Amino acid sequence: MHPNNAEAIVGCRPNLLVDSIAASLRFYVQALGFHVGWRWSDAEGRFLAEDEPDQPGTAIVGQDAVQIILTQKPGEHTTWLHLDVHTADQVDELFQEWTDRGVRVAEPPVVRPWGNYEMRLHDPDGNTLRVSAPATGR
């Protein structure tokens, strides 16, 4: 219990390590429909304006209540993120929207043994995104 019954932890923004901020922003924004919150240039030590080219550094993307921080860093990237949606129909809608945009979904929506209706895809750096909802009605 926290003082005044206030929540201490109110969210989580995973930080994915990526090879290229530019490639990752194209994937998350153009393919998945996320929005850019901000972009940071390590070289210049400042936030970039919308009309400035992408540079190595950090960016934040979001959709609905989810935000993901992307940080350009060389090396292997094998993080798994689980994105929850409310209904199995929403999983299907995202599957259709993203495949229409050319996203290659590694595993189309299916009912998993643990009761979730889930699909899996990979970003340009090999990070796995799992999108799921309760399998109600499936």
Q: How would you concisely characterize the structure shown here?
A:
The chain has 138 residues and is of the alpha+beta class.
What does this structure look like?
- The chain is an alpha+beta fold.
- It is 17% helix and 38% strand.
- It is built from 2 helices and 9 strands.
- The strands form 2 sheets. A 5-stranded mixed sheet has the order 1-5-4-2-3, with helices on one face. Strands 6-9-8-7 form a 4-stranded mixed sheet, covered by helices on one side.
- A hairpin with a 5-residue loop joins strand 8 (116-122) and strand 9 (128-134).
- The longest helix is centred in the C-terminal third of the chain and has 13 residues, at 88-100.
State the low-pLDDT regions, or none.
none
What gyration radius follows from the Cα positions, in whole Å? 17 Å
The percent of residues in helical segments reads 10-25%
> What count of helical segments does DSSP give?
2
Give the terminus-to-terminus CA distance. Answer: 38 Å
General form: globular
Mean pLDDT: 90
In N-to-C order, the SSE pattern is EHEEEEEHEEE
Oligomeric assembly: single chain
What is the number of strand segments? 9
What characterizes the major β-sheet? 5 strands, mixed
Biggest sheet strand order reads: 1-5-4-2-3
Strand percentage lies at: 35-45%
Classify the secondary structure makeup into a structural class: alpha+beta
